[in-house]
Design a protein that fits this description.
Layout (H helix, E strand, L loop, with lengths): L5 H17 L2 E4 L5 E6 L4 E7 L5 E9 L5 E4 L2 E7 L5 E5 L4 H5 L10 E5 L6 H16 L3 H15 L5 H17 L3 H17 L13 H20 L5
Antiparallel strand pairs: 1-2, 1-8, 2-3, 3-4, 4-5, 5-6, 6-7, 7-8
Helix pairs in contact: 3-4, 4-5, 5-6, 5-7, 6-7
């Protein structure tokens, strides 16, 4: 029998921990408007944001400072402040606000709190689950499709954009309808329609009149939710 020296095991454990710490980390904001990729091993951070009416931010910066907790691109400088539960607050330095504004459209801004994303809730994770759910749906495995969409919604909705949430709810609803799960179909469809009121100004007849680009995205999703609701109780 051969024994592995404890010192060798300790070195391996330390190496693995360092590799994990150095791996790029993906973060997202609540409601999904901001996404950040932090790569301390290469000393870089990239942030992209989609704000109101399709305005965006695109920031790629190098990390600076002894703790790699500051970032700079040209004259734009901001801090990465570690908070509870692994969150990172992106804070723009006061004298760099105008320079940082150059990286954003008029109705978008990248400053705020970013949450660490579980692998399932990263862009790659969501795309993979969407693909699996679509294959199940097209294969008429409706219960499986409903579970894939609804379970990932439950896990990741907090950091998804409103449009992503509405799409996934609609997809899960029609799968539930085909699976004979009328109550789930109604709940998902009504959840989309309930959100509409929150983005509709008083006196207006449709949502996002203050943001025409967002309104264009919303209209087909609302129409799909209304259509799905009419089909929830129909036998399959």
């Amino acid at each position: 029998m051969h024994f592995v020296p404890l010192t060798w095991l300790a070195v391996c454990a330390l190496t693995l921990a360092q590799m994990a710490a150095a791996a790029p980390m993906e973060y997202g904001t609540e409601a999904g408007w901001g996404h950040m990729l932090l790569d301390r091993s290469s000393g870089s951070v990239s942030i992209d944001v989609v704000g109101t009416n399709g305005h965006t931010c695109d920031v790629g910066a190098r990390l600076t400072g002894p703790h790699l907790d500051r970032a700079e691109v040209q004259s734009c400088r901001f801090q990465l402040q570690t908070k509870a539960q692994g969150r990172i607050a992106v804070v723009v330095e006061d004298d760099a606000r105008d320079a940082c504004r150059e990286h954003c459209g008029a109705r978008a801004w990248f400053e705020g709190d970013y949450l660490p994303l579980a692998a399932a809730c990263t862009r790659t994770g969501l795309d993979r689950q969407q693909g699996e759910a679509l294959r199940a749906y097209r294969g008429k495995r409706y219960v499986v499709a409903f579970q894939l969409w609804s379970q990932r919604l439950a896990a990741c909705e907090k950091t998804m954009t409103w449009a992503e949430v509405w799409r996934w709810r609609n997809d899960a609803a029609i799968a539930a309808s085909h699976a004979g799960r009328a109550a789930d179909c109604r709940q998902l469809s009504q959840a989309v329609l309930a959100d509409v009121a929150a983005v509709t100004l008083q006196g207006e007849t449709e949502p996002f009149t203050f943001a025409p680009s967002d309104a264009e995205t919303a209209r087909p999703l609302i129409a799909a939710a209304r259509h799905n609701l009419t089909r929830c109780n129909k036998p399959r």
